[in-house]
Design brief:
This protein has 14 helices and 14 strands. The protein has 468 residues and is of the alpha+beta class. A hairpin with a 2-residue loop joins strand 13 and strand 14.
Length: 468
Amino acid sequence: MPDRLSALDASFLYVEDHATPMHVGGVAIFERPRSGFGYAQLVDLIGGRLAYLPRYRQRVLEVPGHLARPVWVDDVDFDLNYHVRRSALPQPGSDEQLFDLVARLMSRRLAPERPLWEAYFIEGLAGDRVALVTKTHQSVVDGVGTIDLGQIVLDPAPAEPEPFEDTWTPRREPSRGQLVMDAISEGVQRPGEVVENVRSAANDAVAAAGKFAETLGGVASTLRTLVSPAPPGPLNVRVSGGRVFAVVRTRLEDFRKIRAAHGGTVNDVVLAAITGALREWLLSREVPLTPDTTIRALVPLAVRDAETPEYSTPGLVGNQVAAYLVDLPVGEPNPVLRLQHIGHAMAEHLDSGRSVAARGLLKVGGFAPATLHSLGARAAGSLSGRIFNVMVTNSPGPQVPMYAGEARLVEMFPVMPLMRTQALAIGVTSYHGGVYFGLNGDRKAAFDVDLVAGMIEESLEELKGAHW
């Protein structure tokens, strides 16, 4: 039987265009050990673990006449060195140079004729640091059969990668005739689906994707609030093909202190800090605010099946992500009241009993945030952009050092994709005492994303000093 793309995975391919590439990224910054950590060692590390990710050596093959959804096939010309690339920053190798490069890399679509992922080994950072930038298409990581590359590259202890010898043998690619016969055979059982697939090829991809998104495959997307159009504002514009990227570095202890003083959860405090920053950003653009003004955030959170009390095996196989809609009270001037409003809204979602506490996620093998951010993007991509203004994903990571080979991970910043009419997406990851924000913005509509980043820091300081 053909390994056919799910309806949701196919929809991510159909709606993709030059302005909205549908991949999720990550920026991992490492300290280079005294023994060194170079491109060849990274290739050995990734190559030695691709056996756990068979999808990463497969490409998408279209069915003639679009009689059925595309299929996954082994890439007979797979070239690891094509996917794992090498780059270097000019002097002085600043963070600003790195993040400018990240923005340009993220704005480029992945080549559809090859496996849908890329990794960039970037040298030349000041302080003898190196960076690993990854891009993975949303159709690849489903959390059921495939996890994110970033989850298997990192280990809790340093170890020199063993030299990689590629002994993988690809399966023969199906012929055009075989693809057609498989499609006809399936079409006899589901004739309506053939019509839908042909419509998607007739410049009606968006309409078809909307129908495909009703089937969420391995990702359960559950809306806990009344679905209504999101409030208008500068965050909801038609995005361009350019990107800007900025980061925020904070300490987990600050969020815990605010939580202890005012209640709620660490995630509530994260959302409150973002809310305060968006409030100041709107004011800087002279957007009129009233006490009732809100920005609707789509907040994907990990959940578990009712019959699965704990994670018992490594990886995220069989787990889910739920997409919650939360109205952020940007019109409220008091930071504590903003936090309380968010806490009440999130409590209604968490009362379902299906959310997974941070301590539960830490039992997941490897660096789970990489996969959880990918699943969050899938949940967001399956929904209409008309019902939310901004996506915010927050995934707790391990509070112990992680390593790629012998190189210690210092910081990890998610890079979430932009939807067709969302100019800003925010990813948050906690790791080893830090909380790291990655802000991906449209180069035209959110050109001042670095201003938002600074405002998140100011908003957090405001919460730290706030009193009833």
